[in-house]
Structures are given as C-alpha cells and as structure tokens.
Amino acid sequence: MNTAVVLPAVLLGRAIDAAKAWASGQGEGTSVLWAGLAYAGSMALYQGARLVKRWGLRVGNQRIMASMRADALRGVLSWPMNRLYSVPIGDLMARIIGDVEVVGRGVRELTTEAWDTVLFSLSLIAGMMAYDPGLTLLTLLPVPLGLLLALSMGRWVSERTVAAREASAALTSYLQERLVGLRVVRLFGRVEATVARVAELSSRLAEASLAIVRLRSSLQPVYRLLMLGGVVFLLWLGGERVATGAMSLGALIAYLDLYNRFVNRGHRIPQLFNSVQGGAAAYARLEPLLAPPLDGPVSWRSTVRIAYVPGLDEPGPPLPERPPHPVAISLRQVTFRYPGNERPVLRRISLDIPAGGFVAVTGPVGCGKSALARVLLGLYPLEEGQVLLDGVVPLDALSPAERAAWIGYLPQTPFLFSGTVRENILFTFPAQGPQCDAELDRWLRLAALETDLQTFPKGLDTEIGERGLRVSGGQRQRIALARAFASRPALLVLDDPFSAVDLDTEAQIIAGLREAFGPAAPLEQRATVVFFSHRLGAFPLADQVVVLDRGRIVEQGAHEALLAAGGLYARIYRAQQQIKAREGM
Predict the structure, then answer these.
(1) What is the pLDDT of residues 359-410, one digit of tens each?
(2) Which whole-number Å values give the CA distances from 507 to 228, 502, 510, 539, in the listed order?
(3) Is 157 part of a structural domain of the chain?
C-alpha cells in the first residue's frame, strides 16, 4: 500500500525527466512512452488498493455497529426491573440507535483516516525524505502545532457531542411517549401544546448539532492553513536547489506532488482527533448498556455479508426445559418494597402453595396484590425473606431463561406486539406443523377466543396493530391468555387479567384454566395457578383463597370456610353478590 501511494509521484518525476531529456536530444522517445505507461499502471495499482481497503474498512465498520446494537439490547434486556424502569425508553432508543451511529462514525473515520491519512501521510513523508531530508523536516514544522490545537479542542468537542446526544434522547423520549398516548393527547386537546413542545425540543437538538458543526467547520481551515505553512520553505529552498543543480526539475515536481498530496491529507490528522473525541463521548453514554459480546463461529458468509454479527449464523442455545410437573411455591418471611419507596408493600409474608394448586388472592385496593404477583415472578429483589420452588430451588437462583421456562405471566394490561393474532399467541412456541395447529385450536377454545376469531377479517392471520390497538381490551386479554397457555408454564401468575371481560366469559376462561392446567390434564402439562383479582366471581373454583390487607395475609383458607368465618373476604364477596343481583334485576 505504501508503494502504491508513493510510486505514482516518483514515476511522474521520472517521466518528466525522460521527456526533458528527449526534448534536448539526450534521450529516446520510447523511454518517454514506457515512463508514461509505468505512471498510468502505478495509478491503477493505487486506486485498486484503495478500493480493496475501503471495502474492508466499511464492511468492518458496519459489523461493529451491528454488534454494538445487539450487545446493547442484550445488556438492557438483562437489567433488573428497577433499573429498567428508571431510564426512559426513548433515551434507550436514542443510545442504541443514535449513539451507536456516532460511535460508528468515529470508528469509520479512525480506520479510514488511519489508512487514507496517517499511513498515506507517512508514505508521502518517506517519499519526500528520500528526495531531501532537510527540506522535509522544515516543511513539516506546522504539523505538531495542528496536533496540539486538536488535543486542546477535545473538551469542547466532547461537551458539544454529549449535549447533542442528550438533546436527541430528550426528543426521542417525548415523541415515543406522545405517539403511544396519541388518543389521550387528542381527547384532552393537547395537540397544539404537544406540537409546540416537539418544536422546542427539535430546536434544541438543531442548536446542539449546529454547535458541533460550527466548531469543526471553524477548525478545518485553521488546520489546512497550518499545513500550508511549509510551502514557504518548499518554494524558497526547493527553487534554490534546482538553480544550483542539487535537484532536478523532475525531482522537484515529484516532491511538489508528494507535498501537495500530503497537505490535502495532512490537515485531516487533527480532524481525526476531533472525530475520535466525539465518538468517545458517545461511547461513554453507550457503554453502561453493553453486555459482553457473544463468541460465535465465523462462517464463509461473514466475509461478504456487511451486517454480520458473531453467532448470528448459528442457532442460539436451546431454551431450558420446564419441569415435568407443576411446582410448589413457598414464601418465607418475605418483605418487599418498590425501588425508591420508603415503606414496604409486603410485610413478612409466609405462604405455601402446593404443586398443581389453584390459589386465588384478593384484598382491598393497595393491599399488595400486584406486589405479591411481581415477587412470584422474581423480577425484583426482596428486602427480606426468600421464595422457594419445590421447597429447595431459590427463585432468584434461576437464570432469566430458566425463569421464563418455569413461569408464565398474564398482567392486567397485557402487551401485544405488532403482527397477527397467530404470531402473538405463538410468541414462545417455536414448533410448526399439524401438532402446533391442533394445540393452537385448543388454546383458542380454552381462552374463549373462537367466537371472536370468526369476526376477524383474516382469522388468526388478522393484523392487530401496534400493541393490539385494533382489537378490544377483552380480546387483547384473551389473546395474551392463549399466549400464556402456549408457554406451557409450571407456574402461571394471573394478575387481575380479566377486568375487561364480562363475568360469564371470565367463568368460561377459569373453567378453561382448570382444564388446561388442573388435575385432569397430563402431568407434564399441569401448572400451579395463582390468580389475583378484585372480582370474586371465580373464587369458589379455587382450591385456596388468600386475603391481603395492608401488605399482610389476614385470611387464608377454602372459599366456604372463609364465608363461614364472616371476615373481610365474606364482606367483600357478599357485597359483590348483592351488586350483581341488583344489576341482574
């Protein structure tokens, strides 16, 4: 590569000397022809080397950015819930997309300029030194000044880069939140205020971005002028050497060509420092997200595919198998508080749920039902106590993959993905074929979705829109329930999941739950079900009822026994039955 850089200038000088000799009658025309052909060949070699170099560097840069985005997403997905909820989704999006782009730009400029500028310049300097070392040292005097200026600008570049990235994150977060809540924005007449806020945030982003542009644009001519400072020594001393015969005219022209190419490239060296400084500032924002990179085998396709990520060609590790039986759950003196809260929402809870049991949990608003559901999922650290599976396995000892294989969850407000009904239900069920279709029909029946599917334009292949906005709230809950059936959990946690369905449909769903996971199901398909709800219509079907109040268990037992005791559960149940009777009149 170094030869390809310097060779054209050397051959150009020789071609000029050959032409001068031929014109004075001291040479032959064939020498000029061969010199010209050699010069043309050297230029072809130079451009070919640049093409190969640029292809390799651009491919490598795209792979780096693809890998960084994958590593950042894996890192975020492994965060504990309290950390995940402390960072706006829009900020994470800005880092994974925008900050990676800035880092990639810095890496691209570093690798490209390392070849195109640093190595290129070193090659040119070596060529100039071969002609006249003393003259070369004098013409290169301005270079250290440019490098010192670039280093002194590092703090300014970093500050402006961080300000621009933070402005981008603020705009992305606001847009993401308002677009998700678009209906609320319209219903409450906040469209104009939202547009004004977006304009304000966009203006801040534009100003922060322009600050970087202004700084780098003002530095570029300064760097170029510094590099051109050596031309004074070149014209003065170079002209003197030609006049005294110490250097031929062709050699001076070759030297001028080398120096001109150096000046056109050399001013980019200080700019390269500034680009790396900006990329480093963006990487500092991205680094907390990154998970350790995956080690994957490299296939032959990796040499030609630009967006190659290690491990992408190979299937991922198999998902852990769920236990071949339902699990028992034991809570031992569990105290739990949400991150940032001073008071615990659960206080010294002890509870044993037998394997395959159907336990219903209720209580007044704010009693800790949802907190207990989250404790059973193992997503938050406990302040005190322990949750054991089958009496021996600590819940917090399970890996995220094992926890997903063991535990299914259906929240009050389920999350559906863009796509079809089928894709959402089979989200955790990778199998295909007739067996899958038969199982899918069964899950639809158990989730009371068969009648609804007949009204969908394309049945299971109906697009439900972002977050399931094209279906009703009750249909969203039942699609999510069918997805929970498809996950085949050993423990199923239902956190008030039927609030959007009528009581008759709820009773049908509970009967489906008993059929799918109860004693009548095969042992390997049975599950322990913990059902949290403020509506008690299905509680008579439960094996055990647990009543919470102010973060403690105040009642526990069978439905009939609790009614006979006449406590809090009996009062809530009878009050709901009276309301139901009045509504039926």
Answers:
(1) 999 998 888 888 999 899 888 888 899 999 888 888 888 887 788 888 888 8
(2) 85, 9, 5, 10
(3) yes
Residue 267: which of 300, 227, 304 has the closest Cα?
A: 227
In this structure, of 1-10, 18-27, 535-544, the range with the lowest mean pLDDT score is 1-10
- Please indicate, yes or no, whether residues 394 and 254 belong to a single structural domain of this protein: no
pLDDT digits (tens, 9 = 90+) for 187-244: 778 888 888 998 998 899 888 888 878 877 777 777 677 766 666 667 777 777 777 7
73 within some domain: yes
Q: SS3 sequence, 321-349?
A: CCCCCCCCEEEEEEEECCCCCCCCCEEEE
How far, in Å, CA of 512 to CA of 497, rounded? 14
Q: List, in order, residues 6 or more apart from 314 with CB less than 8 Å away.
A: 296, 297
Q: Judge whether 88 and 173 are in contact, CB under 8 Å.
A: yes
**Is 226 part of any domain?**
yes
Beta-carbon count within 10 A of 202 CB: 14
280 and 355 assigned to the same domain: no
Statement to judge: residues 337 and 486 lie in one domain = yes
Question: What separation in angstroms does the CA of 44 have from each of 47, 257, 410?
Answer: 5, 17, 65
Q: Is the domain of 279 the same as that of 392?
A: no
Range of the structural domain that residue 548 is part of: 329-559
Q: Provide the domain count of the chain.
A: 2
